[in-house]
Amino acid sequence: MSQHDAAQRMPTVGSLGPLIRSELAPFPGRLRSVARLVLSMALVIVIAMTLQLPFLSLSMVMVLFTAQESTLLTRLAGTTLLIGTTLAVALGLLLIKFTIDYPMIRILTACVVASAAMYFMRISRLGAIGYLVALFVFYLQSFVDLGIGPEALLRSLLWLWVAITYPIVLTIAVNHLVLPQQPARMLRDEMARQLGEVLLHLQGHRLDYHTQALPAAAVGRSALALHRHLTLAAKDTPAHRHNRAIHSGRAAALGRLHTAAAHLSRLPKSTLSPAQTIFIAMLEADIRAFQSAIVRSTRFVCLVDPCIVESPGIPLDALLREMALALEMAATAETAEQVPPPGAEPLFAQDALTNPVYAQFALKTVLAATICYFVYTALDWPGIHTSMLTCFILALPSLGAASHKGLQRIIGCVLGSVVALVATVFVIPHLDTIVGLLLLTLPIVAAGAWVAAGSPRSNYIGVQFVFAFALAQLGHFGPYSDISEIRDRMVGIMVGVAVSVAVSATLWPEREMDSLAGTLRRAMRGLAGLIGADRDTGNRLERQLAMGTARLQAWASVAQVRDVHQRASLEPGRHGGVVMVRTAGALAQAPDVILAVCWLQVLAMDAGTRVHGVVSETLDTVLARVGERLEQLSGVSGPATDGRAGGGTGTLDELDLSKGQEGPEASWIAEIVSTARDLGKRLACLDTVPADAHDSGSELEYA
Question: How many beta carbons lie within 10 A of that of residue 295, not counting itself?
Answer without folding.
Answer: 13
